[in-house]
From TrEMBL:
<feature type="transmembrane region" description="Helical">
    <location>
        <begin position="57"/>
        <end position="75"/>
    </location>
</feature>
<feature type="transmembrane region" description="Helical">
    <location>
        <begin position="371"/>
        <end position="391"/>
    </location>
</feature>
<feature type="transmembrane region" description="Helical">
    <location>
        <begin position="87"/>
        <end position="110"/>
    </location>
</feature>
<feature type="transmembrane region" description="Helical">
    <location>
        <begin position="116"/>
        <end position="137"/>
    </location>
</feature>
<keyword id="KW-0046">Antibiotic resistance</keyword>
<feature type="transmembrane region" description="Helical">
    <location>
        <begin position="20"/>
        <end position="45"/>
    </location>
</feature>
<feature type="transmembrane region" description="Helical">
    <location>
        <begin position="174"/>
        <end position="196"/>
    </location>
</feature>
<dbReference type="InterPro" id="IPR036259">
    <property type="entry name" value="MFS_trans_sf"/>
</dbReference>
<dbReference type="InterPro" id="IPR020846">
    <property type="entry name" value="MFS_dom"/>
</dbReference>
<feature type="transmembrane region" description="Helical">
    <location>
        <begin position="447"/>
        <end position="471"/>
    </location>
</feature>
<feature type="transmembrane region" description="Helical">
    <location>
        <begin position="208"/>
        <end position="228"/>
    </location>
</feature>
<keyword id="KW-1003">Cell membrane</keyword>
<dbReference type="Pfam" id="PF07690">
    <property type="entry name" value="MFS_1"/>
</dbReference>
<feature type="transmembrane region" description="Helical">
    <location>
        <begin position="342"/>
        <end position="359"/>
    </location>
</feature>
<keyword id="KW-0813">Transport</keyword>
<protein>
    <submittedName>
        <fullName>MFS transporter</fullName>
    </submittedName>
</protein>
<dbReference type="InterPro" id="IPR011701">
    <property type="entry name" value="MFS"/>
</dbReference>
Amino acid sequence: MSRSAPKSPAMPPSSPRRGLALGVIAASTLMIVLDGSIVTVAMPAIQHDLGFSSEGLSWVVNAYLVTFGSLLLLAGRLGDILGRKRMFVAGTAVFTASSLLAGLASGPAVLLAARFLQGVGSAMTAAVGLGILAALYPEGRERARALAVFSFTGAAGASIGQVLGGLLTDALDWHGIFLINLPIGAAVLALARPALPAGRGLGLRAGADAWGALLITAGLMAALYGIVNTATYGWTSPRALVPAAVGTALVVAFFLRQARARTPLLPLRMLRSRAVVTANLVQMLMIAALFAFQVLVALYLQGVLRYDAARTGLAMLPAALAIGATSLGVSARLIARYGERAVLRTALVPLIGALALLTRLPVHAAYATDLLPVMLLVAGFGLALPALTALGMSGVDSQDAGLASGLFNTTQQLGSALGVAALSTLAAGRTDTLTGQGSPRAEALTAGYHVAFAAGAGLLALALLAATILLRRPRVPEVAAVPSA
């Protein structure tokens, strides 16, 4: 049976509902991104209040990360089949309810269960949001502006989350970092029904490839579980190696199945697009470097410079403002004028410079001269992410928009997990070596961060190389002139 695109009523370009839909999706994305970063600043308070062990505390972040990252691809495909609006609304409801559960948690088990459910709700919502936008804004400068707004919520939201996390933790307590989601979630739910376009999806007859769904979900979950365990047990520990190897084998089995399945979960035709594949690869490398940058800078501020939670969050604020200024202010115009490829390559240069500067951080740093220039250079992220988002959704059929959105978000989560695991392990290894040799703790920590930031700059350099080589515009053959009669 042939498949048709999801049935969504067309919205005229001037329709106010389309702008409202963009606002709803942006608010939902901001809520999800905030939740991923707002927790990091409040971790010491959560550990003290609920009695988490050091190992158990890491799962306040990891329970969310593993479920979110592993379910995105499945949620994106189910959105195409069952209807993206239906998936978006259901995911927002799950996320909002689990945020209430997290905010009321009185013990570690309840908080971890709530974080697991938050990851489920986030995957359901994030997997289809970009697909809905791609259908509402099919082309042109309006699409570039919409993607800039969407990208801003992802790019700057993490920094804003750290600011809010610090302020809420100091002013109230850690419960507030979860309860703040309730009014946002309620507003999104109230506005989503009238704002988002209706659509029944492809229908269950299109097939969901249950075995493929099981393979990719279990594979990503096992791989992410292994990756996040490296931060606690190291890369050579069986607790990291075994689940990572099992997950990799399951993902390989998934792709083998997709080549033969009648109704594949991930049609391999999507991977024939060089722009889509390269955008996801470059994004994974870039996010790996920059998410780790965010985590490690916060640790440096608190562990070496002895900043408190609120001051740490405020120290990251210039990065959020710089990203917002470029993403919302100039990215759409630059992309419309020069194209996604040129903007992406140019934006990666200041990001490499930012991490290179961090390799020279002193133990007794002055914020204005040692850290503020770095925060301003991170503005390149506000240009790079909109360009990558446009490339990641380019040439995708409307029937696959939800899946492409899920794929794009999946590589983002994989990049986050890989970056934090790899760069944190490098930093910890160097710190332990120097501490064992008798170096003062602050100097050993700083030297460890230097190694991690250098590795992050290397990842960004690889991203620039991939973007330069793989995203060349195809040459258009010249047409010989036909002599006039």
